[in-house]
Fold this protein.
Amino acid sequence: MLTACGAIDYWQSYLFNNTVVLVMSPCSCCLCHNKQYLSFRYSLTLIDSLDTLAVMGELKEFAAAIKRVAQDVTVSNDVVVSVFETNIRVLGGLLSAHVLASLFRSMGNIYLSSYNDEMLTLAEDIAKRLLPAFNTATGLPYPRVNLKYGVNRTRPDGSLQSDTCTACAGSNLMEFAALSRLTGNPVYEQTARKAMNAIWQNRNKVSNLVGNVINVDSGRWVRQDAGVGAGIDSYYEYCLKSYVLLGDVTYWDRFQKHYDGIMRYVRHGAALVDVYLGNPQQRAKNFMDALLAFWPGLQVLKGDLEPAVSTHHMLFHVMKQHKFIPEAFTVDFRVHWAQHPLRPEFIESTYFLYQATQDPHYRRVGEEIIHSLQKYARVPCGFAAVQDVRTFTHEDR
């Protein structure tokens, strides 16, 4: 109930204060010119929230938001965007909204009776504008693309964009494949599969691990730290979930080989610490980052509960010590990077573990997470990122 109330409060504040629909600053309750969001010039928050409204049963709000997106959102602007963020948040948000709207329409819901596949049309429009980023020798995408003019390899500082993170290059298949299946156009799925293939082909053939940053022209690893956290995380997630979504055993086989390497070299007890790609017996870092909190949930999905429970227990210990999981923490659980940008990965893993075990412990963990959010992140117009978990100061985003 607390989560639902908080989400609706934020949503209502967002709509009440926002007529142009850009981004809501939760502390100041104003539209701030945050370049990270203004670079999109379309309704990132609105699109990213559509499926949440439907899942929460707010179908009247969901239908109204869909109409607003259809009327107000354009994606033909002269702006440079992240291929990764645009795919997972915008394309993914539009596709999930389309599937849900179609479902409720088929069930005779009065609010969605006039839905005419507008979200799917917009999704294909944005995907077509992302495709030029994949026009490389390897099929790996450039990290950024101009929605109107395509790829400009020259950055503002004069350097060339030629490198991308593994997660950025390898986290497109679910959205692109779904779009291909929904539209009948195979080009999107083929494009994403080619990028996934390039990462797989360039893995370390001994350990079956992948590095953190890869060159899109040559396929060579630019950063050879290998783990399951920031820069790599969702590539592994997309390997397993692409198998779940598409039923293609290729991705199960790949994930299993990656998984064996991770459990052999990266896992140290409950901890998951980066190693060097060419020498996986040697640690590359002495800290872990918060993004690895997705891993126990992925292990549950795979069916490997014991290590999932162990790593989740470790993460819960970190959370209890600091009220949130810091952006990075040492192997003895001290703060390494103090921010907490309200990441959802630990919540997702907690949910997966509860569903798999029905152990009430995980419900209590969820309650503690909500309590921390309400006590330390709740601000006048929603929830704010925590700038420092040691002082609980906020960022206005």
About this structure: The longest helix spans residues 83-106. Residues 354 and 363 are 7 Å apart (CA to CA). Residues 34-41 have pLDDT under 50 and may be disordered. DSSP finds 15 helices and 16 strands in the chain.
